[in-house]
Protein backbone atom coordinates (compact mmCIF):
# COMPACT_ATOMS: atom_id res chain seq x y z
CA UNK A 1 0.00 0.00 0.00
CA UNK A 2 0.96 3.64 -0.45
CA UNK A 3 0.09 6.42 1.98
CA UNK A 4 -0.63 9.38 -0.29
CA UNK A 5 -0.94 12.01 2.43
CA UNK A 6 1.39 12.11 5.42
CA UNK A 7 3.31 14.88 7.16
CA UNK A 8 6.42 12.77 7.55
CA UNK A 9 9.33 15.16 7.07
CA UNK A 10 10.83 16.43 10.33
CA UNK A 11 11.03 20.10 11.22
CA UNK A 12 9.31 21.47 8.14
CA UNK A 13 5.66 22.15 9.03
CA UNK A 14 3.28 20.95 11.77
CA UNK A 15 4.45 17.36 11.43
CA UNK A 16 7.20 15.70 13.48
CA UNK A 17 9.70 18.03 15.08
CA UNK A 18 12.45 15.44 15.33
CA UNK A 19 13.93 12.88 12.96
CA UNK A 20 13.33 10.13 15.53
CA UNK A 21 9.60 10.82 15.34
CA UNK A 22 9.67 10.55 11.54
CA UNK A 23 11.42 7.19 11.82
CA UNK A 24 8.85 5.99 14.35
CA UNK A 25 6.05 7.04 11.97
CA UNK A 26 7.67 5.05 9.16
CA UNK A 27 7.93 2.00 11.42
CA UNK A 28 4.23 2.36 12.23
CA UNK A 29 3.47 2.50 8.50
CA UNK A 30 5.55 -0.61 7.80
CA UNK A 31 3.67 -2.54 10.47
CA UNK A 32 0.44 -1.68 8.67
CA UNK A 33 1.71 -2.97 5.33
CA UNK A 34 2.44 0.48 3.88
CA UNK A 35 5.41 0.23 1.53
CA UNK A 36 5.71 3.87 0.47
CA UNK A 37 4.69 7.26 1.86
CA UNK A 38 4.23 10.53 0.03
CA UNK A 39 5.71 13.17 2.32
CA UNK A 40 3.24 16.03 1.92
CA UNK A 41 4.25 19.16 3.86
CA UNK A 42 1.79 22.05 3.84
CA UNK A 43 2.22 24.48 0.97
CA UNK A 44 0.25 27.45 2.22
CA UNK A 45 0.72 30.91 3.67
CA UNK A 46 0.89 29.89 7.35
CA UNK A 47 3.75 27.39 6.90
CA UNK A 48 7.17 28.60 5.82
CA UNK A 49 8.05 25.57 3.72
CA UNK A 50 10.90 26.11 1.28
CA UNK A 51 9.87 24.07 -1.75
CA UNK A 52 13.42 23.84 -3.10
CA UNK A 53 14.43 21.99 0.09
CA UNK A 54 11.83 19.23 -0.12
CA UNK A 55 13.75 16.90 -2.43
CA UNK A 56 16.83 17.04 -0.24
CA UNK A 57 14.81 16.48 2.93
CA UNK A 58 13.13 13.45 1.35
CA UNK A 59 16.54 12.01 0.42
CA UNK A 60 17.90 12.58 3.92
CA UNK A 61 14.95 10.84 5.55
CA UNK A 62 15.14 7.96 3.09
CA UNK A 63 18.81 7.48 3.88
CA UNK A 64 18.06 7.38 7.61
CA UNK A 65 15.28 4.83 7.15
CA UNK A 66 17.63 2.64 5.13
CA UNK A 67 20.30 3.00 7.82
CA UNK A 68 17.83 1.87 10.47
CA UNK A 69 16.40 -0.95 8.36
CA UNK A 70 12.91 0.51 7.95
CA UNK A 71 11.57 -0.83 4.65
CA UNK A 72 9.45 2.16 3.64
CA UNK A 73 10.10 4.34 0.58
CA UNK A 74 9.66 8.09 1.00
CA UNK A 75 8.23 9.86 -2.03
CA UNK A 76 8.06 13.57 -2.70
CA UNK A 77 4.86 15.57 -2.52
CA UNK A 78 3.05 18.41 -0.84
CA UNK A 79 -0.38 19.34 0.44
CA UNK A 80 -1.05 22.40 -1.67
CA UNK A 81 -3.67 24.86 -0.43
CA UNK A 82 -6.15 25.85 -3.11
CA UNK A 83 -5.48 29.48 -2.19
CA UNK A 84 -1.78 29.04 -3.00
CA UNK A 85 -1.85 26.99 -6.18
CA UNK A 86 -2.36 29.81 -8.68
CA UNK A 87 0.70 31.60 -7.34
CA UNK A 88 3.05 28.66 -7.87
CA UNK A 89 5.19 28.46 -10.98
CA UNK A 90 5.90 25.16 -12.71
CA UNK A 91 9.31 24.97 -11.04
CA UNK A 92 7.47 25.12 -7.70
CA UNK A 93 4.67 22.72 -8.58
CA UNK A 94 7.00 20.03 -9.86
CA UNK A 95 8.61 19.18 -6.47
CA UNK A 96 5.23 19.02 -4.70
CA UNK A 97 3.51 16.65 -7.13
CA UNK A 98 2.90 13.19 -5.70
CA UNK A 99 5.84 10.99 -6.68
CA UNK A 100 6.68 10.98 -10.37
CA UNK A 101 3.18 11.60 -11.70
CA UNK A 102 1.08 14.62 -12.61
CA UNK A 103 -1.11 14.66 -9.51
CA UNK A 104 -1.29 17.53 -7.02
CA UNK A 105 -2.78 16.95 -3.57
CA UNK A 106 -5.11 19.93 -3.25
CA UNK A 107 -6.31 21.17 0.13
CA UNK A 108 -9.69 22.97 -0.08
CA UNK A 109 -10.17 26.25 1.75
CA UNK A 110 -11.98 26.03 5.12
CA UNK A 111 -15.76 25.87 5.08
CA UNK A 112 -18.15 24.34 2.55
CA UNK A 113 -16.66 23.60 -0.86
CA UNK A 114 -17.26 26.38 -3.34
CA UNK A 115 -16.76 27.27 -6.96
CA UNK A 116 -13.29 28.53 -6.08
CA UNK A 117 -12.10 24.93 -5.74
CA UNK A 118 -13.54 24.04 -9.13
CA UNK A 119 -11.70 27.02 -10.58
CA UNK A 120 -8.39 25.84 -9.10
CA UNK A 121 -8.93 22.29 -10.39
CA UNK A 122 -9.52 23.72 -13.87
CA UNK A 123 -6.45 25.93 -13.46
CA UNK A 124 -4.27 22.92 -12.70
CA UNK A 125 -5.78 20.93 -15.56
CA UNK A 126 -4.90 23.67 -18.04
CA UNK A 127 -1.32 23.37 -16.82
CA UNK A 128 -1.27 19.61 -17.32
CA UNK A 129 -1.88 18.53 -13.72
CA UNK A 130 -4.66 16.48 -12.17
CA UNK A 131 -6.06 17.24 -8.74
CA UNK A 132 -6.41 14.87 -5.81
CA UNK A 133 -8.87 16.52 -3.42
CA UNK A 134 -7.91 16.10 0.24
CA UNK A 135 -10.05 16.21 3.36
CA UNK A 136 -13.66 15.67 2.24
CA UNK A 137 -14.32 14.91 5.91
CA UNK A 138 -13.74 18.58 6.74
CA UNK A 139 -16.52 19.77 4.46
CA UNK A 140 -19.54 17.66 5.39
CA UNK A 141 -22.35 19.77 3.98
CA UNK A 142 -25.58 18.92 2.21
CA UNK A 143 -24.16 19.78 -1.21
CA UNK A 144 -20.81 18.03 -0.74
CA UNK A 145 -21.69 14.98 -2.87
CA UNK A 146 -22.85 17.19 -5.73
CA UNK A 147 -19.72 19.34 -5.60
CA UNK A 148 -17.39 16.34 -5.38
CA UNK A 149 -19.17 14.70 -8.30
CA UNK A 150 -18.62 17.83 -10.41
CA UNK A 151 -14.93 17.84 -9.52
CA UNK A 152 -14.62 14.16 -10.47
CA UNK A 153 -16.32 15.01 -13.74
CA UNK A 154 -13.51 17.52 -14.33
CA UNK A 155 -10.88 14.80 -13.85
CA UNK A 156 -10.16 15.15 -10.13
CA UNK A 157 -10.19 12.28 -7.63
CA UNK A 158 -10.90 12.32 -3.89
CA UNK A 159 -8.47 11.28 -1.15
CA UNK A 160 -10.13 10.64 2.20
CA UNK A 161 -8.39 10.42 5.57
CA UNK A 162 -8.38 6.81 6.73
CA UNK A 163 -9.06 7.42 10.40
CA UNK A 164 -12.42 9.08 9.73
CA UNK A 165 -13.85 5.78 8.50
CA UNK A 166 -13.61 4.33 12.00
CA UNK A 167 -14.64 7.32 14.13
CA UNK A 168 -18.19 7.02 15.36
CA UNK A 169 -19.02 10.66 14.61
CA UNK A 170 -17.79 10.65 11.01
CA UNK A 171 -17.84 7.03 9.82
CA UNK A 172 -21.51 6.96 8.69
CA UNK A 173 -21.08 10.00 6.43
CA UNK A 174 -17.73 8.85 5.05
CA UNK A 175 -19.10 5.40 4.23
CA UNK A 176 -22.06 7.08 2.53
CA UNK A 177 -19.66 9.14 0.39
CA UNK A 178 -17.80 5.94 -0.47
CA UNK A 179 -21.03 4.18 -1.46
CA UNK A 180 -21.69 7.04 -3.89
CA UNK A 181 -18.34 6.54 -5.60
CA UNK A 182 -16.87 9.72 -4.12
CA UNK A 183 -13.87 8.20 -2.34
CA UNK A 184 -11.04 6.97 -4.55
CA UNK A 185 -7.91 6.65 -2.41
CA UNK A 186 -6.84 6.93 1.21
CA UNK A 187 -4.15 8.70 3.20
CA UNK A 188 -3.27 8.76 6.88
CA UNK A 189 -2.71 12.53 7.19
CA UNK A 190 -0.59 11.58 10.20
CA UNK A 191 1.59 14.21 11.85
CA UNK A 192 3.41 12.34 14.64
CA UNK A 193 3.89 8.95 16.24
CA UNK A 194 3.19 10.50 19.64
CA UNK A 195 -0.53 11.04 19.12
CA UNK A 196 -3.24 12.07 16.71
CA UNK A 197 -4.01 10.10 13.58
CA UNK A 198 -1.91 6.94 13.16
CA UNK A 199 0.10 6.12 10.05
CA UNK A 200 -2.44 3.46 9.15
CA UNK A 201 -4.70 2.69 6.22
CA UNK A 202 -5.77 -0.92 6.74
CA UNK A 203 -8.49 -0.09 9.28
CA UNK A 204 -10.25 2.11 6.71
CA UNK A 205 -10.02 -0.63 4.08
CA UNK A 206 -11.60 -3.01 6.56
CA UNK A 207 -14.47 -0.55 6.96
CA UNK A 208 -14.82 -0.15 3.19
CA UNK A 209 -15.31 -3.91 2.84
CA UNK A 210 -18.80 -3.24 4.20
CA UNK A 211 -19.63 -0.93 1.27
CA UNK A 212 -21.21 -3.21 -1.31
CA UNK A 213 -20.62 -0.78 -4.18
CA UNK A 214 -16.85 -0.82 -3.58
CA UNK A 215 -16.18 -4.37 -2.46
CA UNK A 216 -14.81 -5.48 -5.82
CA UNK A 217 -12.70 -2.32 -6.14
CA UNK A 218 -10.73 -2.42 -2.89
CA UNK A 219 -7.50 -3.49 -4.59
CA UNK A 220 -7.87 -0.54 -6.97
CA UNK A 221 -8.39 1.85 -4.05
CA UNK A 222 -5.55 0.43 -1.95
CA UNK A 223 -2.97 -0.39 -4.60
CA UNK A 224 -3.72 0.21 -8.27
CA UNK A 225 -4.81 3.84 -8.04
CA UNK A 226 -2.05 4.96 -5.64
CA UNK A 227 0.61 3.30 -7.80
CA UNK A 228 -0.71 5.04 -10.89
CA UNK A 229 -0.81 8.37 -9.06
CA UNK A 230 2.81 8.24 -7.90
CA UNK A 231 4.08 6.49 -11.01
CA UNK A 232 2.43 8.62 -13.64
CA UNK A 233 0.39 5.83 -15.20
CA UNK A 234 -3.05 6.17 -16.78
CA UNK A 235 -5.81 6.37 -14.22
CA UNK A 236 -9.58 6.40 -14.50
CA UNK A 237 -11.86 5.20 -11.69
CA UNK A 238 -13.73 1.92 -12.28
CA UNK A 239 -16.87 3.35 -10.65
CA UNK A 240 -18.85 6.48 -11.43
CA UNK A 241 -19.85 9.18 -8.95
CA UNK A 242 -23.44 9.31 -7.79
CA UNK A 243 -24.42 12.61 -6.21
CA UNK A 244 -28.13 11.84 -5.83
Topology, number of strands: 9
Report the portion of residues in β strands.
Answer: 5-15%
**Helix/strand/pairing category:** alpha/beta
Instruction: Supply the number of helical segments.
Output: 9
Taken in chain order, the helices and strands follow as EHEEHEEHHEHEHEHEHH
For the biggest sheet, the summary is: 6 strands, parallel
Mean pLDDT, as a whole number? 95
Helical content (DSSP H or I, runs of 4+): 25-40%
- Total count of domains: 1
Describe this structure in words.
- There is one protein chain.
- By secondary structure, the chain is α/β, with parallel strands linked by helices.
- It has a single domain (2-231), classed as Alpha-Beta Barrel (TIM Barrel), CATH 3.20.20.
- It is built from 9 helices and 9 strands.
- It has helices spanning 19-31, 54-67, 82-85, 90-96, 115-126, 144-153, 171-179, 202-208, 218-231; strands at 2-6, 36-39, 42-43, 73-75, 79-81, 103-107, 130-134, 157-161, 185-187.
- The strands form 2 sheets. A 6-stranded parallel β-sheet has the order 3-5-6-7-8-9.
- It starts with a strand and ends in a 13-residue tail after the last helix.
- The model has no long low-confidence stretch (mean pLDDT 95).
Amino acid sequence: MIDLHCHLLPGIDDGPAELSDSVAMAREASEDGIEAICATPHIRHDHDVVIDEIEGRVSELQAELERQGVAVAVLSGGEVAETAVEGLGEHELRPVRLGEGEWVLLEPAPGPLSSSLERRVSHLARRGHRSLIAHPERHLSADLPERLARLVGEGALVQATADFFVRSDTAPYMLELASRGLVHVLGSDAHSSHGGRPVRISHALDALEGVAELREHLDWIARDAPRAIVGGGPLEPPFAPNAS
